């Protein structure tokens, strides 16, 4: 065969004749675009490579789907289930807060007994968080989670059949234990599944965090509709049925992400549990936090000088101090002492606690203000609180896309300032002030503070403990939130009750609400003052390592790496 040169000249063939090669121009004589309409194998290959490159780019930007999920549907379903778990306690609080007056009248409850409707579940939920967190890590997160979801549905159903104050308050206390059984395992599974910081993890945790503010509002709406159509009992029946459906969904959606080898026999796991579970620490924290919280709750009604109140608070503080000492000696503590040596961790917890104290007090008494001063029924109150739920979803979407881009200290400051402005608006409000000028912006800004600060703090806490202690990490975070909320309610209720009985308070019904909102202003102001001392950078960055393998890293500021985040690299902001 004759060889062709690249210039299109005549080339001799083996037989002596010549072959005139056809130039490329001869192919386009029929039309300049002819070759463009022909799809060759090279074009298909190039298109395939482009598609793969696009997919790879998305994966590098978002992060890989955790292997524990069979597909994206299960991943999304579990994140939704975890969000529901986070909303369990606040959903119940939202539902019960707008019908406490109806329940009190129906069951003949005193003011003190009415206050325990919400306080009982808050007390037990806060007291059991740490113990359940470690329990889920040792015995099985999915097992504890399913037990919590099912028991919540059962005991909420029992609340609907309450016949007397004792029945109501005791069962609400048991429900608090069920609430404590769902949040630490859900957070633990999320933290272990999304082991390293990434944008995907940011989005998952931002959705998870939305459960707190959104749960309260949707609980109020659910209860308001049911109460309007039937009565307060119907609201609890509906919640029980709803959580029964969530339990069935959880059987499939919740993956097995455990701190132990799934092939380990139950006997061996129980042996490890009895060896490592901090029984003494659990007893001290249960009774310590329980007694202190009970004292804070009883104080406004029985008086702060009451022997019962003083004994509960003093013994509670003593037991909490003993718990702190014990944790430094026990090899497998419920509250690892080393995490508090991290300056940023300690500051984050204090600032987040102050913010939630401001949020909890103002949210509760704003709802009460709508019922007593504005004289709105349950459904009307719920509808006016709806913007907070919608804003909560939107702000969590925003924070999920910005944690890895914006310095997290800036995000924390934005949250603190939002709390401050929101509660200033409420404290300046009069009885007949325009809803759109005061309450509406306060609802939006309050949830900014909640969503921004909880996301930053929760992400940092989960990185402070290793994968096998993610349930415990979630328990630490939620214990602090629950206890701070209880303290806030105790302080706010004390102020409310003291102003209510004064001549000026009797003459001006709005005054007690104004003073209560001013308490929230003080708490939010304290968080603003402390926030500048937090030094953290971004969280959830996704970069390439030297081997071109995708590696997810957190990038806190220099010297601010979480105490337990051994795998995360840092860079100075």
From TrEMBL:
Q: Where is the composition biased (Polar residues)?
A: 7-23
Compartments (UniProt record)? Membrane
Q: Provide any one GO MF term from the record.
A: transmembrane transporter activity
Keyword DNA damage attributed: no
Q: Where is the composition biased (Basic and acidic residues)?
A: 24-33
Q: Which InterPro entries match?
A: MFS, MFS_dom, MFS_trans_sf, Sugar_transporter_CS
Give the record's GO CC terms.
membrane
| Transmembrane spans | 143-161, 173-195, 207-230, 236-257, 277-301, 307-326, 347-366, 378-398, 410-429, 435-454
Among Pfam families, the record links this protein to: MFS_1
Keywords assigned by UniProt, alphabetized: Membrane, Transmembrane, Transmembrane helix
Chief location category: membrane
Q: What's the superkingdom here?
A: Eukaryota
Residue ranges constituting the Major facilitator superfamily (MFS) profile domain according to the UniProt record: 73-539
Q: How does it sit in the membrane?
A: Multi-pass membrane protein
Q: Where is this region: Disordered?
A: 1-46, 545-573
**Name of the protein this chain belongs to:** Major facilitator superfamily (MFS) profile domain-containing protein
User: What organism does the UniProt record list as the source?
Assistant: Cytospora mali
């Amino acid at each position: 065969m004759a060889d062709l040169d690249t210039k299109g000249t005549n080339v001799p063939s083996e037989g002596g004749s010549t072959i005139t090669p056809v130039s490329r121009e001869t192919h386009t004589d029929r039309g300049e675009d002819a070759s463009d309409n022909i799809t060759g194998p090279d074009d298909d290959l190039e298109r395939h490579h482009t598609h793969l490159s696009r997919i790879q780019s998305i994966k590098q930007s978002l992060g890989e789907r955790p292997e524990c999920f069979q597909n994206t549907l299960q991943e999304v379903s579990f994140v939704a289930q975890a969000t529901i778990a986070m909303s369990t306690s606040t959903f119940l609080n939202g539902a019960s807060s707008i019908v406490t007056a109806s329940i009190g009248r129906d069951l003949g409850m005193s003011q003190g007994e009415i206050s325990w409707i919400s306080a009982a579940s808050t007390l037990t939920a806060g007291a059991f968080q740490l113990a359940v967190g470690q329990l889920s890590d040792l015995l099985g997160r999915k097992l504890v989670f399913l037990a919590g979801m099912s028991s919540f549905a059962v005991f909420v159903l029992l609340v609907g059949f309450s016949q007397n104050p004792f029945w109501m308050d005791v069962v609400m206390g048991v429900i608090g234990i069920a609430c404590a059984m769902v949040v630490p395992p859900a957070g633990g599974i999320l933290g272990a599944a999304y082991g390293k910081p990434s944008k995907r993890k940011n989005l998952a945790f931002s959705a998870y965090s939305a459960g707190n503010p959104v749960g309260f509002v949707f609980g109020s709406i659910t209860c308001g509709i049911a109460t309007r159509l039937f009565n307060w009992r119907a609201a609890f029946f509906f919640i029980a049925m709803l959580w029964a459906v969530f339990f069935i969904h959880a059987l499939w959606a919740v993956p097995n992400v455990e701190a132990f080898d799934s092939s380990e026999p139950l006997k061996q796991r129980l042996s490890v549990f009895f060896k490592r579970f901090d029984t003494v620490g659990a007893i001290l924290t249960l009774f310590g936090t329980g007694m202190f919280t009970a004292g804070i709750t009883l104080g406004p009604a029985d008086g702060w000088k009451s022997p019962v109140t003083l004994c509960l608070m003093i013994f509670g503080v003593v037991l909490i101090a003993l718990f702190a000492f014990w944790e430094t000696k026990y090899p497998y503590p419920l509250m690892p002492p080393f995490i508090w040596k991290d300056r940023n961790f300690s500051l984050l917890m204090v600032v987040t606690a102050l913010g939630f104290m401001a949020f909890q007090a103002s949210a509760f008494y704003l709802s009460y203000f709508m019922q007593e001063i504005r004289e709105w029924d349950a459904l009307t109150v719920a509808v006016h609180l709806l913007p907070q739920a919608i804003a909560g979803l939107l702000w969590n979407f925003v924070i999920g896309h910005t944690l890895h881009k914006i310095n997290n200290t800036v995000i924390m400051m934005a949250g603190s300032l939002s709390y401050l402005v929101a509660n200033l608006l409420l404290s300046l409000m009069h009885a007949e002030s325009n809803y759109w000028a005061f309450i509406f912006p306060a609802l939006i800004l309050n949830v900014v503070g909640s969503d921004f600060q909880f996301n930053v703090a929760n992400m940092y806490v989960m990185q402070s403990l290793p994968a096998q202690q993610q349930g415990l990490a979630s328990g630490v975070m939620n214990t602090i939130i629950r206890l701070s909320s209880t303290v806030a309610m105790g302080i706010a209720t004390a102020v409310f009750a003291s102003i209510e009985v004064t001549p000026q308070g009797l003459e001006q019904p709005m005054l007690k609400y104004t003073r209560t909102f001013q308490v929230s202003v003080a708490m939010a102001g304290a968080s603003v003052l402390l926030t500048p001392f937090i030094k953290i950078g971004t969280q959830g960055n996704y970069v390439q390592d030297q081997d071109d393998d995708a590696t997810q890293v957190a990038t806190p500021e220099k010297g601010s790496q979480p105490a337990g985040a051994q795998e995360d690299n840092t860079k100075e902001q």
